[in-house]
């Protein structure tokens, strides 16, 4: 292909993607609305794309930029002079490393565990799965915050880490970090605060005079914090920070191996080779926006959040899950409204709103992550129309017999043929076996919602497995 053909193909491939600018994609991407900063960041990514973060002595520019980013974050999280940090590929890697470091700090514990609230991000369950730790899940209270007393009671001699969220992704509220951290410290256990969403917003919210539950290193007992640069620092994708109170706490995170004929492998992250592009893009973004700029962006995003939350509260058919404490808003049906249909109707109107399936006694909800570029009046106008359309359409029916069958299935026993049938029945595969999403997702989500979590996982893994296969030559 010629360069021009490649450029045209790239444009064509991107046509079906969600927009990354405009403030209407309310998950996955975060938009500051600063076109010049975005362009500058892309230049930085391109300039350093070939640089390799594997060896900071070979590419000292990347180390210098990483240290600058950690120094900027130190003020936000009220870190002591001893605070250190590591740039990672995203929030999940930051969380994985926090768990891995806590595990490896206690080699004497044969079967280590972590204690988390049930609203903790799934990344911590992924860490438990990858690294062989038991994940002790403690139910949250009626306010959707972690139950500090119950978490303290769950600690035992196998606990290597306790986790709190600032805020939790699903509900947008901050856990009682001071009480959780105090209980962890009393037992000599690390306490990690997952501030991947809130780390670049909550400090500015406090400066703007808004009430914020203490969550930073100013809280005694907090040993590490994760905060994403590619969320509300508005940097290009692939950049997060894992911050530790002291170098000693970070040390078990490192991996080194000299027992082979090649170079001594020395890694601070799960990756070895890693492009310098995200580092440079994050550094350029933070330098361009600066502290005063982030204060303005936080004020815009928080004001938009307030307006949207207030609009939902007065809109018939929906109710807030909780009063938002950052920039995340979740809402459930208040009456005979299908939230999955609302999400579909919002998509028709050019807004991506994320559906969240039911969990135990919690009903399904719609979820939005509001950026500085989000226009609340336009969002609420579209939401009002979408709710009216969903009420007119009525609920998405699920045959009771089908629901009973789904609840009875054991995903462990399902083979490819059975999974193919489930994909077809759920609308994720066509008559010819082709895999893809339908234009409207309400019926798919309704079926997934009545399925037990383990079956949801099996079906969606099968969907992703089949989706991620190259098209055969000649087809």
UniProtKB/TrEMBL annotation:
Transmembrane segments: none annotated. PANTHER family: PTHR42735, SPHINGOSINE-1-PHOSPHATE LYASE 1. This is Aminotransferase class V-fold PLP-dependent enzyme. Coiled coil: none annotated. The keyword Transferase applies. InterPro entries: GrpII_AminoAcid_Decarb, PyrdxlP-dep_de-COase. The keyword Transferase applies. Its cofactor is pyridoxal 5'-phosphate. One of its GO terms (molecular function) is transaminase activity. It comes from the Bacteria. Keywords: Aminotransferase, Lyase, Pyridoxal phosphate, Transferase.
């Amino acid at each position: 292909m010629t360069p021009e053909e490649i450029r045209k193909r790239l444009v064509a491939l991107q046509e079906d993607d969600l927009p990354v600018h405009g403030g209407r994609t309310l998950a996955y991407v975060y938009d500051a609305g600063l076109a010049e900063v975005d362009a500058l960041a892309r230049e930085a990514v391109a300039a350093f794309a070939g640089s390799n973060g594997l060896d900071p002595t070979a590419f000292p520019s990347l180390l210098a930029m990483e240290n600058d980013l950690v120094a900027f974050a130190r003020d936000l999280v009220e870190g002591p002079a001893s605070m250190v940090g590591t740039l990672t590929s995203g929030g999940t890697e930051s969380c994985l490393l926090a768990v891995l470091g806590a595990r490896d700090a206690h080699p004497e514990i044969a079967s280590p565990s972590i204690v988390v609230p049930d609203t903790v991000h799934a990344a911590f369950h992924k860490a438990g799965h990858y690294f062989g730790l038991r994940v002790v899940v403690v139910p949250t209270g009626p306010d959707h915050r972690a139950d500090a007393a119950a978490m303290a009671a769950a600690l035992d001699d196998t606990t290597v880490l306790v986790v709190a969220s600032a805020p939790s992704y699903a509900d947008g509220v901050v856990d009682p970090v001071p009480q959780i951290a105090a209980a962890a410290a009393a037992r000599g256990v690390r306490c990690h605060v997952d501030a991947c969403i809130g780390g670049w917003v909550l400090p500015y919210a406090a400066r703007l005079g808004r009430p914020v539950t203490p969550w930073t290193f100013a809280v005694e007992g907090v040993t590490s914090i994760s905060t994403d640069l590619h969320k509300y620092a508005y940097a290009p994708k692939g950049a997060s920070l894992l911050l530790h109170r002291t170098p000693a706490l970070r040390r078990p995170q490192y991996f080194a191996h000299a027992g082979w004929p090649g170079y001594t492998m020395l890694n601070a992250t799960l990756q070895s080779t890693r492009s310098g592009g995200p580092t440079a893009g994050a550094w350029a973004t933070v330098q361009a926006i600066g502290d005063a700029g982030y204060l303005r962006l936080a004020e815009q995003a928080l004001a938009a959040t307030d307006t949207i939350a207030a609009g939902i509260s007065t809109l018939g058919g929906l109710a807030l899950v909780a009063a938002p404490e950052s920039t995340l808003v979740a809402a459930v049906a208040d009456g005979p409204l299908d939230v999955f249909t609302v999400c579909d109707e919002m998509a028709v109107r050019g807004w991506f709103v994320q559906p969240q399936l039911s969990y135990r006694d919690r009903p399904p909800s719609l979820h939005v992550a509001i950026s500085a570029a989000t226009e609340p009046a336009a969002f609420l106008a579209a939401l009002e129309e979408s709710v009216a359309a969903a009420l007119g359409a009525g609920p998405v029916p699920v045959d009771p017999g089908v629901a009973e069958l789904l609840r009875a299935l054991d995903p462990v026993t399902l083979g490819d043929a059975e999974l193919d049938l489930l994909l077809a029945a759920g609308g994720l595969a066509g008559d010819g076996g082709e895999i893809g999403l339908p234009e409207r997702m309400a019926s798919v989500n309704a079926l997934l919602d009545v399925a037990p979590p383990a079956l949801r996982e099996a079906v969606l893994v099968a969907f992703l497995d089949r989706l991620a296969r190259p098209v055969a030559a000649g087809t």
